[in-house]
Design a protein that fits this description.
By secondary structure, this protein is mostly helical. It has 15 helices and six strands.
Length: about 400
Amino acid sequence: LINGLGQVREEWYNGTFVLKPGDEDIHTANERRLTELIGPVGGKLHTGRSRNDQVATDTRLWTVEAERQILTELALLLHTGAEFAREHVDVLMAGYTHLQPAQPIRFSHWMMSHIVAFMRDAERLTELIPRANKCPLGCGALAGNAFGVDREFLARELGFDGVTPNSLDGVSDRDFVVEFLLWASMFLMHLSQMAEDLIITNMLKGVIIDDAYATGSSLMPQKKNPDGLELLRGKAGIMMGKAVGVLATLKGLPRAYNKDLQEDKVPLFEAVDTVKDCIAIATGIIATMKPKPENLMKALCPEMLATDLADYLVRKGVPFRETHHISGACVRLAEETDTSIDALTLEQLQKIDPRFEQDVMKVWDYEVSVERKKSIGGTAKTSVLRQIEECISFANSLQDVFN
């Protein structure tokens, strides 16, 4: 049997395997050819087996291998993003909430805000593997097998972490497919968010996207469209549709195996290809894009330091809620006098609150503002560098485990 199967495998690899009209599927084709090569003993191949448990086994093996490959590619994306952030750690930019200027931050802090989401995605994917890596071989068609087949031995030989505990569930369970599609949807959602941020920043000339990931217009010669980013953004919605489609297929199925289950293959295979392509494109975009520090700085405005003005009084012992109102009064005065808030004189500030002193003028410094945010996860340089080192350490651990 083993030698004969080796011959069958070689025929598939060499392209010499001949399919015949009576072959219902890959399983019957292989068994038919095996019997031609070694005689009636080939008919024993299917003892204690069913196509139901075989296809479930193959799908799990393929999915787990694909997930491990994706994790090694994610490790490269994490490395690339972290090193990019380290290279540009001194660049400042405007941080936004509601797409309105909020506070100054480091460009590298913004970059790491997306990279840490990818770290969570990698953690989630590692958590999927143990559930997918259970062996259903030996479940038979639905009721188990009557020949004392050692399922745990089969699982060890095939590299599984264990066996599925119920034969009915073993042949019909496609949770691992759904979990991967849902995982891929969330990962591509995160990629889409980064792509949208970069599309906007590119529009404002804050970053330059390399020509390899952009195209020109067929009509307007001045155009340089960030097509790579737009495609990353577009893939997220398609992936969500695949996940919902498979869920809809599964929701009405009775136990145990039903032919509907073969409809999991196309979305699964396409999802793996899409994820790998998107990781490669995102890695390339990050590695080749160039920030424009002078343009990023142009988006900074003194009003973004209004919170720092409030913090100034907090450090003098004034309750924050009170300082928030005082800072708001300063903002209103600047608007009413049609002047920038940093141009308000000490006399004007002291009319609003006498606790302002001469050193308040040091508040109007973006670098000082950023460097005060030294808390874990903050935008101060030491905090960002800590995030970068943690990311690189995590990426290295992925490579060590899955390479």
